[in-house]
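Per reviewer request, we include the raw input and output of the structure prediction for the construct analysed in the revised manuscript.
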Amino acid sequence: MIDRHSLKLLDLLADTRCHAIDELAATVELAPTAVAERLHVLRDQGVAMEIQAGYCRLPQPVARLDAGTIRTVLSSPTRTLLADIRVFPALDSTNGYLLQLAERGEVEAVVCLAECQLAGRGRRGRHWASPFAANLYLSLLWRFAPPPAALSGLSLAVGVATVRALESLGADGVRLKWPNDLLWRERKLAGVLLESCFLGRTAMVVIGIGLNVAMPGSAREGIDQPWVDLQEVMDGAAPSRNRLAAAILDQLVVVLPVMQHEGLAPLLADWQRLDGLRGRRVALQLPDGTQVAGVVAGIDEQGALRLDTGQGEQRFAVGEVGMRRMA
């Protein structure tokens, strides 16, 4: 369990000195066994912590997310458009939390962030590694009324917005992989997951972004694909997660109205600039298990992948295929 007592313990340990667990217990008014349990949970969730012989210490303070700090850093237009920013120590899923709000009739733009996700999801239900206070798990609830014709290309637009944000903070070389991944030197840096529900002619879309910022060593073994974090991309100078969240939100509130009124077309030039697969030979895995091989020729104005198969160009809509690179 990661709760307010867990956060208080992190505050007490922020001085990086060695603390007796009994003394911590007296301060937070819990039994020593309850404190020890919370400390072990935090360590299991990826917090670097030394625990032994009734004592514990943090090698370095844990920089936590803070809604007030994020709101302060946001541009004025973004602050006006966002109804609320909610930060939780732990959630099963930030997307899941906002999807429940949408299904209950919430129509305002709400942001949800969590220090860790207990059941983080990627595309097609894949597990998303979510260690505590290490990476960015951000979701935004956004209303499209009526839904634009090119809503199928929304994950591509979100990818463009996210790379724009990273570039504004000094991250170079990040590329997009259709339909929902951000890569750096062909390793996964971030992923986009969209979920939606409809209220009449209004589409309530939850835009989820998971971005590796500073992946702790304890979380690395369970990742089954090549990956990278922002600390490596930026040579150890990654911005704070609060600043990163604000930069992404600032770009999203620019891109999403464009999608509403003009579709994906105004973003195609940026996509082409950032396309990490254009000209590459790939194999597309179709839902029925068959594969189509070809050379990527970019995307169209609806966000479909254009694939030159050698027997003519075929197009594949977002969400219909999985992709792996061919040797």
